[in-house]
Amino acid sequence: WPPMLLEIENDGYGNECTKASAQSCGECIQAGEKCGWCIDKDFLKQGEQKSTRCDEIEALIKKGCSEASIENPRGTVSVNKNQSLTDRTKDGVKLKPDQITQIQPQKLTLNLRSGEAQTFNLIFKRAEDYPIDLYYLMDLSYSMKDDLENVKNLGTDLMAEMQKITSDFRIGFGSFVEKTVMPYISTTPAKLLNPCTSDQNCTSPFSYKNVLSLTSQGSQFNNLVSKQQISGNLDSPEGGFDAIMQVAVCPNQIGWRNVTRLLVFSTDAGFHFAGDGKLGGIVLPNDGKCHLQDNMYTMSHYYDYPSIAHLVQKLSENNIQTIFAVTEEFQPVYQELKNLIPKSAVGTLSSDSGNVIKLIIDAYNSLSSEIILENSRLPEGVSISYISHCKNGVSDKGENGRKCSNISIGDQVMFEVAIMAKGCPSNGKSETIKIKPQGFTEEVEIVLNFICECACHKEGIPNSPVCHFGNGTLECGACRCNEGRIGRVCECSKDEVRTDDLDANCRMDNGTDICNNNGDCVCGACECKKRDNPEERYSGKFCECDNFNCDRSNNKLCGGHGRCECRKCICEANYTGSACDCSLDTSTCLASNKQICNGRGTCECGTCKCTDLKFQGPTCEICPTCPGVCTEHKDCVQCQAFGTGEKKDTCKEQCNKFILVKKKKKEELPQPNDQPYINHCKERDANDCWFFFTYATKNDSTVEVHVAEELECPSGPDIIPIVAGVVAGIVLIGLALLLIWKLLMIIHDRREFAKFEKEKMNARWDAGENPIYKSAVTTVVNPKYEGK
């Protein structure tokens, strides 16, 4: 890829178009999607480089290039093959697998412009009753003896279950043990015949054997599998990867069709992978080719085990979806393996494989419900992105944009695919890529054509006289110089670029720098330097001019009201001054009375300069020391309209500056809608009566006053209601105070009574005798009485 076509970071000034320094239209359009090339022969100004023709479209138009003269080819997307999505059954006629379409469209052609993404939609729909090929690959080491008994009836049982999913189902069977070399198996003659103990009858060890190619006869599966015998090996990991590789790369022997391909890998042990073969002296990497002879893998002693990456590649190439049916002990190992192999699943196998049918059905439903798009290797500089639009309005992008989950039969999903190229490939040729759903044979073919040249390139005139006596090709309005020639019109050879004589032609006089230090002397002519900011340019025969060193106003070049040409401002209409900062428009000076600066100043550069020092403000209408218009003319209006007021005796002499118009009522006075600039006044006379008038200055500076003859005088007070109101108020206040006093007394009495009742209940009476009490009866004892 040419270095000049690499993507350039935008550092704040400039853009990818100007920074590319493109010398031709083709180089320009490869710099970025926004770049255009001006083919107008008279576009370049004196001193400007050829690369000035390349810039963003808006910038070229600002520089004076018409839209019709700008080359700006755009990319396109065209659909070449677009068969409709189909179902498995159509009009009651069963379709062949190759007649079923699940992805649309099938072929497209993209014309790619550098930096411009081309977007198209892919639609996928799961077909009903889609055919399935299932190959059951089983570990026949001794530990799987009880599993083999349950698998012997797998054919018919699985066929019955799969008939619920598809009417076109085929099943095959293969087995594996281990490489037939030490230390994986015992190579003694007796152990080669029977690797098990003497009381067990086992078959000879083998690497991989294709027992039954894919068939629709479930009974044939049962018959052949029932004849299989267990074998044995020495180490715990098995040689299953050898078997998977042969199943993937031997489609003819296995009998794979272009339908859904399922590989069930059943084992209760781990696996050997690339590098483990060194233990047996096997160092050649697995070649990924088919080596089945008489349905037996014959090169296990010659090639090492395949690597995981190699398996992933071959499984993906052959659209095989893998189901690992392994025991609980090895679940973690195969879960990690599943994460490395696309479109694979792991199921927990019971110790005797009794749940294998349920495991297969669940794994198939899991695999088929997820759609993942993958693409072939992309050409250098080409990138691709996906946005998924799945069920229930769910969308995603990035890596998750490649897939949709929970897809049922008949569901339709869409993927938005965007492809973008940076630059052009060195050979400029078309490339083809393919996109397909993982695990499916259908694919979308995409032809990529790269737009590397402009349309005007074909109209180039080789050896044109315009290019200095035929030293270049006149192409797209500019000369593309022949090898060894340079200059704007190829006027110089590279050998004579720098000489004293030519440099002298690039000085304004003997005391100045070459091209005023703003350019390079090329073939005796100045080519002005480019600025970081593409809006700023040097120009002129000696690069003595520029468009960015003019006077500024408000930090804007030429005040934002002109353009800078050769360091002088060319002002727009209605602006003048060295920085175009003086406006000739007087609309900003109009006062509210439509007079310029209120008749008390002059308008200079759009701003009022007040000549009457009492007035100020943007339109000389503010007078802080002046009385109001209404107050100022109150006495004159009063004396002219009513013959009263302080100026009634001198009315004619002092109050003749306005025209008085009388109206009956204030409602008849002019309103703002009648005269836009009018003052409404309301003033009080000596009798406290209000009178109303309006004051307006017309465009001819005459003042017109309209006054209402009807006065608004306040009426005298009505004594009777006032007295009655006062008396009523006093009575009401007295009653209110009496009621409040009565209420407070009731509350106080109730509190005292409650307190008395409480003390009464709490009283306790003492039952003892009164110490000062003396009885009225006195008892005297006769001292003589002896009781006789």
From TrEMBL:
InterPro entries: EGF_extracell, EGF_integrin_1, EGF_integrin_2, Integrin_beta_N, Integrin_bsu, Integrin_bsu_cyt_dom, Integrin_bsu_tail, Integrin_bsu_tail_dom_sf. The keyword Metal-binding applies. Residues 742-788 form the Integrin beta subunit cytoplasmic domain. Residues 16-66 form the PSI domain. Pfam families: EGF_2, EGF_integrin, I-EGF_1, Integrin_b_cyt, Integrin_B_tail, Integrin_beta, PSI_integrin. GO terms for cellular component: cell surface; focal adhesion; integrin complex; lamellipodium; melanosome; ruffle membrane; synapse. It is a single-pass type I membrane protein. The chain crosses the membrane at residues 719-741. GO terms for biological process: cell adhesion mediated by integrin; cell migration; cell-cell adhesion; integrin-mediated signaling pathway; muscle organ development. GO terms for molecular function: C-X3-C chemokine binding; collagen binding involved in cell-matrix adhesion; fibronectin binding; integrin binding; laminin binding; metal ion binding; protein kinase binding. It is found in: Cell membrane; Cell projection, Invadopodium membrane; Cell projection, Lamellipodium; Cell projection, Ruffle membrane. It comes from the Eukaryota. Residues 24-454 form the Integrin beta subunit VWA domain. PROSITE patterns: I_EGF_1, I_EGF_2. Disulfide bonds join 25-35, 28-65, 38-54, 196-202, 250-290, 390-404, 424-681, 452-456, 467-479, 476-515, 481-490, 492-506, 521-526, 523-558, 528-543, 545-550, 564-569, 566-597, 571-580, 582-589, 603-608, 605-651, 610-620, 623-626, 630-639, 636-713, 655-689. Keywords: Calcium, Cell adhesion, Cell junction, Cell membrane, Cell projection, Disulfide bond, EGF-like domain, Glycoprotein, Integrin, Magnesium, Membrane, Metal-binding, Myogenesis, Phosphoprotein, Receptor, Repeat, Signal, Transmembrane, Transmembrane helix. Residues 630-718 form the Integrin beta subunit tail domain. Belongs to the integrin beta chain family. This is Integrin beta. It comes from Cyprinus carpio carpio.
